[in-house]
Amino acid sequence: MILLQKKNIHRKMKEEMSMALTYHRKGDYLFPNLTIQETEAQIGKYGMLRRTFLKEYKNSLYQSLLLTGKLNSHLEEIEKAAQERLEVLMEKLLEKNPAPPKEENPMAWTAHMNSLTATAEESILTELVYS
Questions:
Q1: I need a surface site. Which of 47, 74, 77, 84 has the fewest CB within 10 A?
Q2: What is the pLDDT of residue 10?
Q3: DSSP string covering 68-126, please?
Q4: For residue 63, what is the DSSP state?
């Protein structure tokens, strides 16, 4: 019976040792070896703008997302939503304000499309990125 109890104690100690943190020494201090498991994400213009906004104005949310490993997925969601909203808004704006024929006056067409894109992006930035 005592031998069985010793084996159980030994097994529990091994389990605890496998879950123990490892440390590295830097000067007089020991720092835990911690890593964040975060997946790589495709972050475009809107994701980078969101990251900058979070860093500067919502630092606690930024730190929380970063430490929990959810920052890249959050930025990827913002990027995806912003791209989808841009497409939808551009279609609606083109229905309301049709562009001049591209073949007849390419400069006017370009100016018109840039104006519509700026209008759509202003909406996206206020609703998604800077909120």
A1: 84
A2: 54
A3: HT-HHHHHHHHHHHHHHHHHHHHHHHHHHSPPPPTTT-HHHHHHHHHHHHHHHHHHHII
A4: H
Q: Which residue type, as a one-letter code, is found at position 54?
A: L
The pair of three-digit structure tokens given for residue 73, joined into one six-digit string: 């997925």
Bridge partners, residue 113, by sequence:
none
Instruction: Return the ∠ at Cα 118 (arms to 117 and 120), rounded to 5°.
Output: 65
pLDDT in tens, 35-69: 666 667 779 999 999 999 999 999 999 999 988 88
Is the Cα torsion angle 67, 68, 73, 77 positive or negative in sign?
negative
pTM: 0.69
Q: Do the Cβ atoms of 129 and 50 come closer than 8 Å?
A: yes
Give bridge partners of residue 24 from the DSSP assignment: 31
What's the pLDDT score for residue 18? 53
The single-letter DSSP state of residue 8 is H
Alpha-carbon distance 56 to 41, whole Å? 21
Give the mean model confidence (pLDDT) for residues 99-119: 95
Q: Most distant CA pair in the chain: distance in Å?
A: 96
